[in-house]
Amino acid sequence: MSNPRIPDPAPAPQPPPARPGDPPPTTFPTAGSAQPPVDTQPISADAKKWAWPEKPTLLGTRVKRVDGPNKVTGRAKYTFDINRPGMLFGKIARSPYAHARIAAIDLSQAEKAPGVKAVLAWKEVGAEVMFQGDPVAAVAADTDERAVDAMRLIRVRYEQLPHVISDAQATAPGAPVVFKGGNTTPGSTEETGSLSDGFKQAAHTIEANYSTHVITHCCMESHGSVCEWDGDKLTAWISTQAVHGSKQGFAQGLKIPEANVRTITEYMGGGFGSKVGPDAQGLICAQLAKLAKAPVKLMLDRKEEQLDSGNRPGASVRVKAGVTAEGKLTAWEGTSLGSGGAGAAAGFPLPYLYDFPNRKRTHTDVYINAGRQRAMRAPGHPQGCFLTEIMMDELADIVKMDPVAFRINNVPAVAANTMWAEYFTSGAKTFGWDKRHPTGDKTPGPIKTGMGVSAHRWGGGGRGAQVHCDITSDGGLVVKCGTQDIGTGTRTIVTMVAAETAGLPMSAIKAEIGDSRLPFAGASGGSTTCAGVSPAVRITVGKALDALFERVAPQLGVKADTLVASGGRVHVKGSPAKGFTWKEACKLVGTEPISVDGKWEPGLSAAGTCGVQFAEVEVDIETGIVRVKRVLAIQDCGLIVDRLTAESQVHGGVISSLSFALFEDRILDRNTGQMVNPNMEMYLLAGMSDIPQIDAVLVDSPEQRARGVIGIGEPPTVSTSAAIANAVRNAIGVPLRSLPLHPHKILAAMAQGKAAGTL
Amino acid sequence: MKAFAYVNPANEKDAVAALKFDGVAMPLAGGQDLLARMKDFIAEPDRIVNVKSALDGTIAPMPDGGLKIGAAVRMADLAENAAVRRLYPAVLEAAGEVGTPQIRNQGTVGGNLNQRPRCWYFRNEEFVCFKKGGNRCFAPTGENQYHAIFGNQGPSHIVHPSSLAVPFVAYGAKFRTFGPQGEREIPAAEFFTLPTLQNVKKENVLADDELLTHVILPAPGNVKSGHYEVRYKTSHDWPLAFATVVLAMQGATIRSARVVLGAVAPVPWRSEDAEQALVGHPIDEATAQAAGEAAVKAARPLSGNAYKIQIARTAVKRAVLQAGGFKTA
Amino acid sequence: MAPNDEHPDKSERGSAVSRRAFLKTAGVSSLAASVVGVEVGAQPAGPPMVGPGETAVHLMVNGKRVDLQIEPRVTLLNALRNHADITGNKRGCDRGACGACTMIVDGRAVYSCSTLAIEVQGKQVRTVDGLAVGNKLHPVQQAFYDHDALMCGFCTPGFIMASVALLEKHPTPTPTQLRKGLDGNICRCGTFKRIREAVASVKGVPHV
Predict the structure, then answer these.
(1) Contact B165, B262 (CB under 8 A)
(2) DSSP code of B109?
(3) What does DSSP assign to residue B232?
(4) By C-alpha distance, which of A535, A533, A528, A541 is closest to A513?
(5) Which of A168, A171, A589, C207 allows an S-S link to A473, with CB 3.0 to 4.6 Å?
(6) A325 close contact with C: CB closer than 8 A
(7) Nearest-CA distance from C186 to chain B in Å?
(8) CA angle, corner A316, sides to A314 and A321, nearest 5?
(9) Which residues on chain A are in Cβ contact (under 8 Å) with B103?
(10) Do the chains contact at C5 and A157, CB–CB below 8 Å?
(11) Residue A210 belongs to what H/E stretch?
């Protein structure tokens, strides 16, 4: 993950440079404290001509997913569902140890096992495995069950090496140096203003440690692919959020031309940032298929998924901050650590969002013997937000201000993408913030209630997406884009924008996505898909319509630029009667269809969203159990495309952040470095009974609509955890400075508060 | 999962015969625990004996006014049984809180009582602990936030996983077993075993070729009972600690008490201290508080689970209050 | 994953004395060596024993007979997905925790990943693939679609089957019945709110 505030760390010591199969470096935007830029690039004639309509018929309405029926009937075929004739099942043998050297690999027993068609060593003897779950060798057999049998017959002899699995272990005096060049890579120290001036201006200061934990993506559909060769050409059905990126990944990893690779992702079961390439398992699958001369399906099992498919890295900071008696922030000084796993950095924006005029941050990346981090839904932001927002409530109490008023006092100046002050005010009213009691619920009984608030921002701008549009004489309108639907509703968005542009019902549009043979589109990451694809579809369909108008205009005796497509007709603007039905117009296309390429261009999308969230909780102080009762999310996202799926994104962000705050935790045994909860039972995930009332308010003002489309997949997941933690503090009267909000921490905080006499 | 041979006997006798085997044979009831263990190579039977047809799947009244519950009764059915609701409400409540609807639809009474520990060291094959033939328990120096706070003399520090075991012990149930030597009736409290180096690979006295066939609950008499579970997640999760109390009343005064805690020890943990704190008192807040305090007096937590003492204390207190008909958090 | 090479002989009852002796005589340092071709021993008198190799298994799935030749160890989920190309229900965790595999067997929602195919012979198995009648969605499917109670859709088939089982039992569930009835399923995109609304909106399900 790159972070402008932290120079990329020196090439990670050991074992990178990246092996084939390692995920490509994440390039999702993770801006630092500075606001993401508003698009200021020049706007093309096409983009001007095909600007968003002032009175849309579909945009902003609630449109059901076009692939909803396929998904609810089970007819949607995910990668996991692909069954090919003669298909084998692949399985990977992985290191059981956190750190070891491979002394021997014996594949002979596996080769002889029933049903086995291919066996390969992925690592060489002498190589090191750097975390539990590091892939070592693999096998393909005729059934799922026999593949597991054979995998377990791969005999690997390991020489165990010392390991470190936490910041504390990696940085302890005398810690074993397990990464070449050291277990840490200090980032640069970054300073703005003058700390000493800042602290001089401060009437009060606070010094504390804040931290977040490691969670995993835990996609419902695990990572994996089905690989099938035809001579030297590979077809890979792959569960990915980057169809084109995966094609490139296969080509690079297998050292074959990109032209020889086709990747297909009709449907995929969640990615959240972790599925941007074939990874080791994809390349292994392709190699097994080549060796076996048969298609191979290789989907990770849940344990592999938990160990080696990415995680949201932990973050911590030791901070000192200053505030004036009037509640203006003056200074922030912090020393932060982040653990991205085995040789991976972990950046996060800090301090988050608020105006600290004088600040200095020193960041150190810590390497540990654990699975590597990958971008995860708003990478870096949930951590930076928590590390800052909890302190904000403590500071508000110090200066005896309401947390909302204190925040409004310290947000950056208002602009289209920095609307927090307004959202705090309107949200507080909607939420009933005036009923919030001061810190510590003084009512009798074990159940204490509390309210909390938090704010966030995100980029989410559009970027490179290419589209092809055909209009045929039978009235067909086909839109092709090599994007993919990670679950946000991309296929629906593509269809909607095309239908809106051509003035047709959605049923008249054929949208094709999820295939690398379609025009290039980037990964579904950084909340860039909707903002990338929507303008590209709009402009391309618009250009196709321009071509159609050229062919229709002579028949009407008018100039092409007087024509519009609306209401299922192609007609002279302002005179619906003067024209043709869509079908009649298309008949004029003739045998050579209209075939137009286009791409994303600036002008129809923007970057920079903001939002605030409020949470209400109940804390049982006799058990330490937290129950979230209500969450209100105020979120802007520019021009809303599909209101229904946009709202779903907000709900999903809130729920996943709640799960992060309360339950999820990758727990490694402190002695062996092995994960003790690599499943979905002891790795606790929020379920139905844990879900509060959720109210999503999408800001839909003329000013926001004028900005164009902005992605919304990530921003709503940033704030909830901090709002919940602040609500818990408001309920119990003592701060909780680390996640997750496990009952043992609640009870310990209460006990400390009592001992210190603050409760 | 290792390949296995499969047999589906129709009666207890054939089932026990099929379990007697040179290799490793295991009975399969609801399968909600065993199949997961097999997939994780924690259990590697050569033979699976499906006992769902062989074992009784009914709940029948006993002449003394008690109930006889077949081991093959599914949790979902137990949780909705009218006689259980009337006579043993704590059993009903415990059954209704086990796992998820899907687990309760498949899981059986026998399976719930005989399931293996949820300890994450036991459940992951990388950790070769006492229970898997190794020579150590990983919990005391490791991640022990969900481990025992009572009965921690070792060698193993698991908590017993069964939710039903606790109310069954509290109501004074007996377990009927059937094996090659015939049948046995074992008081529930004696069925479960604290670990020793000799028996650490099991959690109870059942032999490998023996089946638990019935739970026999005596007529409850004039008792009030309460059951309280503390869960981290409200949805599918295992309790952090829970308690069943069964109080025999004399007017408004507790004449005798049975207090049993779950998820705190390698066995359902009876607290005689708490029982003594209850006897002779009315059911009220002060009594409940005293029982909670007494229940945890002897707790000996591990390095990372002292917080469970407070949770166990609360579970006992609230179970007592529930028995008295008070509303609790 | 792979077995721990230091302790290959480590399962709960796998380290029985007889097994250790067998391995020592065979001079193999790995339990895994006995994974295949293990001797089952003489068949006892009594009911017939099948496996560990493939055996005939006959299922009734969505009202249609499915004849398979599979090992006894094959789960209902894998039997349908890998051997019958009935892929509507998904494999998420394969350990009875996520619910994506939820099917209805004789009227009850079960985790098909935690059920052996061989165990459900003679029972009626229903999967999400059999709910719709032609293009007419089942009321629960229609409600999920209408309420956008799905995102990536991978958990959806399991949630729908759990919801159908719930509503067949409680046609108008209380809020508590609704949430408890769906506590056995996980959605990672975070659709719970709309699933709750979708299921609550269903006005009756067909009698089965």
Answers:
(1) yes
(2) H
(3) S
(4) A533
(5) A589
(6) no
(7) 10
(8) 150
(9) none
(10) yes
(11) strand A204-212
Q: Whole-prediction pTM value?
A: 0.94
**C-beta of residue A273 within 8 angstroms of C-beta of residue A300:** no
* pLDDT tens for each residue of B69-98: 999 999 999 999 999 999 999 999 999 999
What are the CA-CA distances from residue B88 to residues B39, B93, B214 (Å)? 36, 9, 16
Distance, in Å, from the CA atom of A718 to the CA atom of B237, rounded to the nearest integer, reads 26
Of C33, C78, C135, the CB nearest to A144: C78
Rg of chain A over CA atoms, in angstroms? Answer: 27
* Distance in angstroms (rounded) separating the CA atoms of residues B194 and B165: 14
Enter the tokens of residue C62: 């969505």
8 Å CB contact of C88 and A74:
yes
| Contact residues, chain B, for C40 at CB < 8 Å | 5, 23, 46-47
By DSSP bridging, strand A447-458 and strand A358-367 are unpaired
Nearest alpha carbon to residue A477 among A548, A554, A576:
A548
Q: Which residues fall within 8 angstroms of residue A162, CB to CB, at 6 or more apart?
A: A99, A176, A178
d(CA A673, CA C139): 49
- With contact defined as beta carbons under 8 Å apart, do A672 and A394 qualify? no
In tens digits, what is the pLDDT along chain C, a chain of 208 residues? 665 555 545 667 654 333 333 333 333 333 333 333 334 444 445 678 999 999 999 999 999 999 999 999 999 999 999 999 999 999 999 999 999 999 999 999 999 999 999 999 999 999 999 999 999 999 999 999 999 999 999 999 999 999 999 999 999 999 999 999 999 999 999 999 999 999 999 999 998 7
Which whole-number Å values give the CA distances from B49 to A450, B6, B210, C47, in the listed order? Answer: 53, 6, 12, 10
Q: How far apart are the first and last CA of chain A?
A: 41
Check CB contact of C158 with chain A, cutoff 8 Å.
Answer: no
Residues 6+ positions from C174 with CB-CB distance below 8 Å? none
Location of structure tokens 């060291």: B121
A302 exposed, middle or buried (CB, 10 Å; 0-12, 13-18, 19+)? buried
Chain B's closest residue to A150, CA to CA, is: B2
User: Does A133 lie at the interface with B, CB-CB under 8 angstroms?
Assistant: no
Q: How far is CA B233 from the centre of its chain?
A: 20
pLDDT digits (tens, 9 = 90+) for A88-131: 999 999 999 999 999 999 999 999 999 999 999 999 999 999 99
**Three-class secondary structure of residue A432 per DSSP:** coil
Indicate yes or no: CB of B100 within 8 angstroms of CB of C99: yes
